[in-house]
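#struct-help
A.M.: can someone run this one for me? Single chain, 158 residues.
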Amino acid sequence: MSTLSVDTIQGKTTSNTVQMPSGSVIQVVNTSSSSAVSTTSTSDVDTGITLSITPKFSASKLWLLFSSRLYISQHSSEYLVYIKNGSTIIGGGATLFNGSSGDRMAETCNIQGFHSPSSTSQQTYKITHRVSAGTGYLMPNSHPFDTPVNFVILEIAQ
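D.P.: on it. Structure tokens below:
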């Protein structure tokens, strides 16, 4: 049995050229927020939560993950949350529906999506939201057991 021990793996000509096996995580970027955000808009509006990544390889896939506690104030209404790159929807949709019983509804929502930008240029992703009626809220830390809003992007080698 042999052991190979190294402190750094570096490309022969530049440090960003080492090709990792397919499925390897190349890099991770993330952001979190403890601030509540709300909307009454029936059209998509930015939440102010954005995240940028510059892929190291043009063949990479990006795995985007978003989580937050959501709340909708009105019965018979939907709260829709999306991950977008420009106007392109990467993930999300009708994430919370409050039925006709008149109860208000809150629950944790997890959204994910894959994007293949085929580029090594910086990519910026944003979280948008809208409602069909009432008010929709991203509500991090609204309960003692809640966590902040989390938004993560992983670059995956192909």
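A.M.: thanks! The longest strand covers residues 61-72.
D.P.: also worth noting: The chain has no helices and ten strands.
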